[in-house]
Amino acid sequence: MIDKNSPIPVYYQLKEDIKRKISQGVWKVGQCIDSERELSESYGVSRMTIRQALGELVQEGILIREKGKGTFVCEPKVKQKDMMSFSNIIKKLGGKLETKVLALEIIDTPEDMHDVFSFDKLYRIDRMRIVDGETIANEIVYIPCDYCGYIDEKLLEGSLFEILEGFGYKIDYSQSSIKAIIMDDYYKKLFNVDRDVPLINIYSKTITNNGKILFVEESTYRSDKYLLEVDISTREGKFR
């Protein structure tokens, strides 16, 4: 299983073999995998190598360590690391996505959005995103009516990005703020759960290639099911 003469690092070979065993069901979701000592003996490598491989798998959200108990297989999460619609993320992962539109209405532009949109009327779109039968996210989107052609609830069961691209917009990037929120009775009902689950709230402005704020979105995700990866880098001249 491990080729110590290979140019591929031993820890990486080990990591990939553990991932293979998980995918094949040798270790199932929620199950404790072998201890570092047991893995060291079965693979014939040092515990330091085992620790490095397991550490990377924990960082990738595949395993989780519980102090005093062991290392367990995590439930797979929807992972987003770039500018991609939720629909396309799920399609790429091979999951089954259902979108339930809770509301599609035209509202007066809220006072706190006057500095974002110079229009009197906005569409307010409220949708639930359900993956493989489990409710993962609630999305509330605000977009000027003037930016859209005809939209209805049926269209909104698909990708909003694709709808807007059909209207001629090219989405470039988004500006987001992220915070944790506390599960309460409202969210238990919204997400159809009877226990406390961790939630994250993301407030974002999505911007076109010509600098126009296309829509504002406030999304709430189950963070035990959804992982947002953010790359932060410095650009020349921005930080001194």
TrEMBL record:
The GO terms this record gives for MF are: DNA binding; DNA-binding transcription factor activity
- The question of whether Ribonucleoprotein is a record keyword is answered with no
Question: Is this entry keyworded Transcription regulation?
Answer: yes
Q: Which domain of life is it from?
A: Bacteria
Q: Which UniProt keywords apply?
A: DNA-binding, Transcription, Transcription regulation
Extract the InterPro entries matched here: Bact_HTH_transcr_reg, Chorismate_lyase_/UTRA_dom_sf, Tscrpt_reg_HTH_GntR, UTRA, WH-like_DNA-bd_sf, WH_DNA-bd_sf
Location of the HTH gntR-type domain: 8-76
Enumerate the Gene Ontology biological process terms: negative regulation of DNA-templated transcription
Q: What is this protein called?
A: HTH-type transcriptional repressor NagR
Task: Please tell me the species this chain comes from.
Answer: Clostridium fungisolvens
